[in-house]
Amino acid sequence: MPPELEQTLAMLSAHRSVLGYLLLSRGDQVSIIRHSGVVFEGEHGKKYASVIGRIVESVQTGLEEVSGEENEGDQIRFMRIRTKRHEIMISPDERFLLAVLHDPAT
């Protein structure tokens, strides 16, 4: 893994409001490359990974339907989803997805 990515992931993990992160591969089957935080351990992490992959694909498909041919090739750059308890920030790349879960109250 490139040193700048290692540094970014370490910085994210150290932030007090961050509960964890998932670095995921993109494709038909989303898989966890790396994770941090108890919330992403075991089966719970696999569920988050699957859901995050589906969210990104669904939003991308919707964007393509709405944009039509006028904005062909338009892609999601960053997503922020806020619930009552948490906030999930997703940064999709061509090959990877980075999802960060944080507590907005802290």
UniProtKB/TrEMBL annotation:
Gene3D superfamilies: Dynein light chain 2a, cytoplasmic. Residues 5-102 form the Roadblock/LAMTOR2 domain. InterPro entries: Roadblock/LAMTOR2_dom (IPR004942). Belongs to the GAMAD family. This is Roadblock/LAMTOR2 domain-containing protein.
